[in-house]
# Entry
Amino acid sequence: MPKVIKEIIFWVFYIAILVGLVYSIPKGLAYVLKTEYPMASITSGSMWPALKKGDFILIKGVHSQSEIKVGDIIVYKNPKGFTIHRIVNIKDDMVTTRGDANNVDDAPINFADIIGKPIYFRNKPLRIPLLGMISVYLNKDKT
# Structure
């Protein structure tokens, strides 16, 4: 078999594996972490110093109100996308949050809007610094 054909087969195989990984890793994480959105990038400094702009985090699903408490960091849906802030109050099925670096509380949200909360390691959110900058730069023009 000519070298050129071997090279083409190699690259087709390589790209197929790469596409498979890019597709299957998020799907696998969604299954394991029990959430439709298992990954997030921190796009602002509102949670400094716990989470920094450009951090990448993994999110585990929250399916009952008993899984959250005041002081937890949560990820929730809002009209602009997602917010990652700390719970400051829970009353009935309404949850109030605030970014650690912010001076005012966010508007209360319904428990149903909560996506999940970060995975923790040694009592701190597990974060990969700078990996989330890819998302920050890709979404820069959308804000």
Notes: The radius of gyration is 19 Å. The helical segments are 3-33, 133-138.
